[in-house]
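Now for my pick.
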Amino acid sequence: MQLSMLANEMCMLDLRKLFFSQESGLKNRIRHKKQCASFKKHVLFAGSRLLVLFFLSLPTQVLYAENLINQTNKLITKGAFSQKAVLDSPAASIATEIIANENASIANAVTSIITSKHHPYLLRSDFQNRAEDIEILYKMTGNKLLWLGNAQAKKNIVDVLSLLENASANGLNSTSYDTRTLQQRLPLALSIAPDNYKQLALYDTAISISLLRFLHDLHYGRVNPKDINFNLKLREKKLIDLPALINSSLAQGTIGQLPELVEPKLKQYQKLKQVLATYRMLAKDPVPFQLFVNKSIPPGGNLPQAEELREFLVKTGDLAEEQSDSNAKKSNRYTGNLVAGVKNFQLRHGINADGVLGKGTVAAINVPLRQRVTQIELAMERLRWLPEPSAGASIIVNIPAFQLWAFDDIDEFDATMPNMRVVVGKALENQTPVLMAKMSFIDFMPYWNVPHNIVKKEILPKLMQNPGYLAGQNMELVTTFGNETKAVAFTGSSIAQLKQGTLRIRQRPGKKNALGKVKFIFPNKNDVYMHDTPSRSLFSKSRRDFSHGCVRVANPDQLAEFALKNQWSKETIQQALSTPKTRRVILKKSIPVTFFYVTSFIDQYNNLAFYSDIYGYDAVLQEALNKSGDLSDEAIFAPPAEPIPLDIPEPIPVEAIKPGEQIKPVEPIANYKML
């Protein structure tokens, strides 16, 4: 009786939409009536083989089976008959079998594509570096279609394509994700026959691969930093599960929120993203501003393009609209607020803010704004490479900015934080490396152990001309760098021994010492560090790349106070800086130090600053991005630590040097470079 009710209810389905959409209404009704009677008979008596033959085609079987199950569930809910009776019926069994076969066919097609790690729809057809995540993503749903074959298919796919189309808002390129191809294929994809499993799987996986590529690029970046000599710390483990985020967002209908979940949370990154949108709009100007100046124009001079320059400075935010009064617009005199606007522009571009429209300032004004857009995009790319920051104090040196910032928390970036000018390595000769390390100790009144390459290139030629050169520079000869090593006399064979490296040179602490009064040490393979310097005049220059690779700091006492604020008082620090004793202070807690390189940066006053690409790294990165493919996770994650054998004895504890204790010259970690 219950199965008869089921059969009658199922005949109420509009079979015309499944079988007879191209036939006349009368013929539809006649056939509908016959099919209902036949279907009722099969529900009550027929075996599975006869019922399969009843349907006209496999796609129709699938559609009808789905309708059958949906309608049956409604009848069970109404209490029309028991669930057991339905499950035991031949019709329910066949419907379940049809859908199971369909799922298996789809799963086989999806698995085949993932296993091949190759996709014919995509410009970058090889997706082996994303294959693991793609496999995990589809396994979450039993290798079923993620995007096609459901009522929300069009909406979900359009949401994904919208994200990819707007990739430029995140400093990425939409063409990298085959956006146009996927958009063009969408209408056909939505009309693919249900039994065309291969084509369904191809489009579905293409959407997944492109979305996963976009999210991976947004979170980790597109280039392995080590490939372009950026020695950054590797991530220890994955802190974000991209497949799980995609699956969850798809289920909740929140695809559009995915970028916010994966992009870097650093305030520096978020602020650059905001100004990127502004500069993109400015760069669309069909007639970009160009300033033509034959010779430097000081404040008060005549400037024929005064009004055009004023409009340009308003656009870039260096001159407020209310400051650009109507009377000033009628004048060609370079005065007042216009000069103030130029000074603001100079400050933001690493130029001495004297208000003079000189060669450097004019060149910076004439840089196309689309190039500024690129600088912002490259800075955002480099920020993606940084591992998630740890809490606590940190020190950052931005090499092309010639500046250092020290802060207690990476996102507490304001005008109250220590900030100072620095001198970095000479371009093309002794470039300061990009690195991440931890400051572990500070030497007051340090010896400078002169590296062998500096001895050969710079000191030996002077010493050969003037045997008294070492004494004049407060330098001495030693057989080795060490605490107990004593100086040796200069003899006729000393120069030959220096060339061979059997004799070495070190500079005693004092006013002439190249390291000044303090050295900040963070062990690294590049053997560089930060230090004081007696050459104070260099800090007044706008471009400050004069060192041998290390970083000279303008306010070493301020940096020492920051590093030792929970350890030494200001008075103790000043005493250490004014005494001839060599002292080493081991930090109670090491401080992360990052030497970084970005030519666009939001400073502590919330101003967007641009800097010259002194080492040419922007061009190198741009070239790498043009050639980039999928970034391998192996390149950005540190390998798991190997277990320590149990038979290795425990290390013998060594007593640390106490704060304020006088020490003899210490052997460096390596031959430190001079700045």
Q: What stands out?
A: Residues 306-367 form one domain.
